[in-house]
Design brief:
With about 450 residues, the chain is of the alpha+beta class. Helices cover about 35% and strands about 25% of the residues. The chain has helices spanning about 20-30, 40-55, 65-70, 85-105, 130-135, 150-180, 185-190, 230-235, 260-275, 305-310, 380-390, 390-405; strands at about 5, 110-115, 120-125, 145, 200-205, 210-215, 225, 250-255, 275-280, 295-300, 315-320, 325-330, 345, 350-360, 370-375, 415-425, 425-435.
Length: about 450
């Protein structure tokens, strides 16, 4: 009588291998400290939250709502139907994890996976993923028929099964072992000429004119003034100051806001993924005329930047001070003079600001070079603008919006207003608010 046996495959039973809490934590920290996740604050928060819940044995408590509140800073009672941020971040997180394990750490002993349709992370050993994908290709388990008269049939079927698993493993692991990473096509399309390997890009960052407060002035030519008494307790909040040591104020023109630092980091990381070459300089070293006929990314607000002010001089959207809002605001020049600003920080809701992405052909260029401006209301605005334009998911959504309006591709010149949720002047999330095409 014939007997049937399923082929055993190295411990794959449909469940992830068991690892200690310490091993899982080490795998998590490897991802969080990676270059791939260096500029993804929300994705790191998301991944840390769900992984530490799983490590603590609380995987059953993980849900879209608790991730929104516990990891992404959403308010208690927020609506899952109106706010899809967790689903969007989960999509981005899966792609980031794939990129990390294929390009940056293909030999990682433990891999973290967020399965589609779930937010509960899985910790997989090397090879587990490959074998599972191989088994998914077969609609029925691979079986060997053991018959007394035909031992060669059993051997042949076993060989076929091994070859099948080997071919699939090679297809799945090949890109990872080669160390190659692919750029999302939507990023390459949006960034255009800057996405070419070897493209020469200048990142120009506006600086603030400010008074530097220190116990001792630097040997500069700028004037030095005694500090106001009110500055002493503010200085001591985060810095040491011995009793009796006087504070001095000195004029400086070199500071960059935290959000603009993030915008510069996101820009550099994106250009690096294209294998483009770039240099990062303060605007005083590369003023507006130096950007002519160059691929350039300019970061700053008009009141701090002659370049941004000049580039936004004739665009539909610009950023100006609005007395009614008591702050900078995004104004739509297409509206009549005196009309309320198109986008401003709402009274009583300082948790929201706005960023502005402006894409223009480089002035004086006959070779298709491009200038991109990341600006906005305050520090968070520039950060939100850069995050939006560096996110494949945001760009895909924006392109879908353009397509509904009759544009099948990104225009050569346009602007996008980005709504930014903030906390303590730090970006929490960004989303599309409006756009204008510059014909």
């Amino acid at each position: 009588m014939a007997q049937e046996h399923s082929i055993a495959t190295g411990g794959v039973s449909g469940d992830a291998p068991e690892f200690s809490a310490r091993e899982k934590q080490q795998a998590l920290e490897a991802v969080l400290g990676s270059e791939t996740f260096a500029h993804s604050v929300q994705l790191r928060s998301f991944l840390r939250y769900v992984c530490e819940m799983e490590i603590a044995g609380r995987a059953g408590e993980i849900s879209e709502y608790v991730i929104g509140v516990g990891a992404l800073g959403r308010p208690e009672g927020y609506s899952l139907t109106e706010d899809a941020s967790v689903r969007k971040r989960a999509y981005e997180l899966r792609h980031k994890l794939e990129k990390f394990y294929s390009a940056e750490s293909p030999s990682a002993p433990i891999r973290i996976e967020i399965p589609k349709g779930s937010y509960v992370p899985r910790f997989l050993g090397r090879g587990t993923e490959v074998v599972e994908q191989a088994l998914e290709l077969a609609p029925e388990p691979i079986r060997v028929v053991r018959t007394a008269g035909f031992p060669w049939l059993r051997i042949a079927l076993l060989m076929v099964a091994c070859i099948t698993v080997g071919v699939v493993a090679d297809r799945v692991a090949g890109p990872a072992m080669s160390g190659r990473s692919s750029v999302d096509p939507i990023l390459a399309e949006a960034w255009g000429p800057m996405a070419q390997p070897g493209a020469d890009v200048v990142i120009c960052i506006a600086t603030n004119l400010h008074l530097l407060v220190r116990p001792h002035s630097q040997p500069e030519t700028t004037p030095v003034y005694p500090a106001f008494p009110e500055l002493y307790p503010l200085f001591r909040q985060h810095r040491p100051l011995a009793e009796g040591t006087p504070l001095q104020m000195q004029v400086a023109d070199s500071s960059v806001t935290f959000g603009e630092v993030w915008a510069a980091n996101l820009t550099g990381s994106t250009l690096k993924s294209f294998r483009a070459e770039y240099q990062m300089v303060p605007e005083r070293v590369a003023p507006y005329p130096a950007l002519r006929n160059r691929n350039a990314v300019v970061i700053g607000v008009p009141m701090d930047s002659d370049a941004v002010s000049t580039l936004l001089a004739r665009t539909p959207y610009t950023i100006e001070y609005d007395a009614s809002a008591g702050d900078q605001a995004v104004r739509d020049r297409r509206k009549p003079a005196g009309a309320p600003p198109a986008f401003a920080t709402e009274a009583g809701r300082p948790s929201y600001a706005y960023g502005l992405v402006t894409v223009l052909p480089s002035e004086g260029s006959a070779a298709g070079r491009r200038c991109i401006v990341f600006s906005g209301i305050g520090s968070v605005g520039a950060h939100g603008a850069a995050e939006f334009f560096s996110s494949p998911e945001h760009l895909r959504d924006f392109k879908a919006t353009l397509k509904k309006l009759g544009d099948s591709r990104f225009p050569s010149a346009y602007q996008v207003v980005v709504k930014c949720k903030q906390s303590q002047n730090l970006l929490i999330s960004s989303e599309y608010a409006a756009h204008a095409i510059i014909r």
